[in-house]
Amino acid sequence: QYNQTPQPPEPPRQNQNPLTGAPYTPRFYYLLEKRQRLPAWMARQDFLKLMQSNQVLVLVGEPGCGKTTQLPQILLDAGYHVQMGQVRAICCVQPSPLATLSASLRICEELEVQVGTFVGHVTRFEDRTSGDTLLRFLTDEALFREAMEDPLLERYSVIILDEVHLRTCETDVLMGILKMVMQRRPELKLLLLSSSMDVKKVQAYFEGGAPLLQVPNRTFAVEVFHCQDAEKDYLKAAVRTVAQVHTTEPEGDILLFLPLEDEIDLACQLLRKESVHMMNFGDLQVRALYLGLPIMETQRVFEPAAQMKMMAGKPSRKVVVASAIAETSLAVDGITYVIDAGLVKQRAYNPRTRMEVNVVTPISKASALQRTSLAGRQRPGKCFRLYPERATSDWPEKVYPEIMRSSLTTIVLMLKRLGFDDVVHFDFVDPPSPEALMRALESLNHLGCIDDNGNITEVGNQACRLPVDPQIARMLIEAPAHRCSNEALSIAAMLCSLPVWLRPNDAFRAANEAKARFAHMDGDHLTLLNVFHAYKQQIQDGHDPSRFCAENFISIRAMRHAEIARDHLKRIMESIGLQMISTDFQDKEYYPNIRRCLVSGFFMQIACLESEKRGAYSMLRDGQEVMLHPSTSLGHRPEWIVFHELALSSKLFIKTGTQIKPEWLLDIGPRGYFDSQKISEKSSARSKLEKLTSRRSEG
Ligand code: ADP
Ligand code: MG
């Protein structure tokens, strides 16, 4: 037996924190008492017994029952960090950076330790852990990267995969990797957490079927109301429903689900305005919750509405306006009313165009139930659905695993790097379509990351070290040759950051004017570079960058994020031997060099102008029609564009595009990639490139 016999943890006797030696504060005991009432805590005896006797365990419990925050601590208390006489760490993998950060900060608070000491976290661009960290919270992506350095993950005694019911692409593939690692390391324990009972497939995936422990539910009845007819403007309907609940329903907080970040911000603005007119019914406190928010702001959703603030003799009420993240990942306490627009933003992948787009789609029936049940966690509640019941008949029963609707380039490259040569036969929980896998292999081959035999190349190894998608990685790797390392780095950091431009509803025009001040006529990538330079200049001149950002409607969070990402990427570039070379700003090749460098990474994302009048472009490989997004800073419609992403709304739009020259495609693109027979007959690029090639061979 490798583990010490687990002892049921006793509440600490002395008034002293064993981790730090410092005395516990009263808040510790206050939180402890709350923790001990959580269902996951109460199930700890059964849990430890099953952990002891199994290598893999699946644990199901409703959102908020204490899985994420309590189970790692229970394992720590029971001595699971000591394995075969060695101190190892317990790893908790979350599907998003926000959930990672939130869990790490919360547990530090509960244990009264500093972040980065005994408890810490690793996300894409941040590592707040030390050699002593016993509870390590990681994003799924971060665990992938650790596996590349340490394929058997020997630093860990237990690995917890959280939210496995979401079936994100990364979690799915991690399950496959861990399944192999466990064969080589029989002492490694794997704990899979789920907020939904739908885990049969996951259980069956493991040898002999993983046992299941269900934490007892204690939900109350929730009364459900549907709209009579579909609401065209669900945002307006949502705001109206919040107001109605606030003015007519008894005490209790509200959780409103909307699909898009912009809509959440807008709804918050509208509700704050509205709340002034509803003072007679008590103070309404509005909080937003979605992935891009700063962590401190998201933690505010957990604070109770300030009860002291009685207004007109009524207690105050909190309304949390949230994305799908609040469905299971971040369960907010005290919700009595759920208002659900019934929509979610989802990744969709089209293997033909090889592009991922985000689309707003109806939620699954399972999600609708999950959202509803959140209203009944503490007492009976109500759920207002902003859609008619009949609309749900053609909704999917549950969400399809993300791996079936994602671009697999990054995942396939990582698998190759980890030594899984035959990715087509990798033991996936649900295998993606062979077409998507073939496309990923093909793209990696074009990018020079794997050779014609499917073996990883030097470029591929370098790309694996850079925590960005392979196209950006390729751009960074090629940057020294194009003499624009520093600029490519800044652009890459900006592309990885949050949305840069703020679009406040009441200052739309001023925001657009501000944006125009930074616009580069050759394209959005260069505009982003201008913004980054201007921001850095402010700091260099000793000015307060937050003022500069506010005046120009630039998101300070995005800029700070980009700065951190840039530093991180720069360190890696230097460590893998990429030189920091730049062209002099006065040199007329300064911008062309950068644009060529963009093509070296994004040659698979080129569009060619078809109709000046309609502003229609065609994508080269499949001839699909795309338009320029109205937000672009391109002042005209260039004939050739390299772009970063597509957005799907009424039409397919190019976002973040920059003008290029067709000659560059032939010079910089991989050999044969732009041969005319590879280009769609529907695209005029075919004949244009043909002409160019023949003119060249004549010349
Ligand atoms: P689960 O993972 O099972 O969904 P959690 O462990 O995240 O549940 O949450 C347990 C309890 O702690 C819930 O009541 C939740 O609202 C609360 N909680 C979680 N994170 C925080 C936080 N950062 N601040 C305050 N309360 C929190
Ligand atoms: Mg959780």
From TrEMBL:
GO biological process, one term: RNA splicing
An MF annotation (GO) of this entry: RNA helicase activity
Gene source species: Symbiodinium microadriaticum
Keyword Hydrolase: yes
Recorded catalytic activity of this chain's protein: ATP + H2O = ADP + phosphate + H(+)
EC code(s) of this entry: 3.6.4.13
Protein name: RNA helicase
Entry keyword set: ATP-binding, Helicase, Hydrolase, mRNA processing, mRNA splicing, Nucleotide-binding
Domain of life: Eukaryota
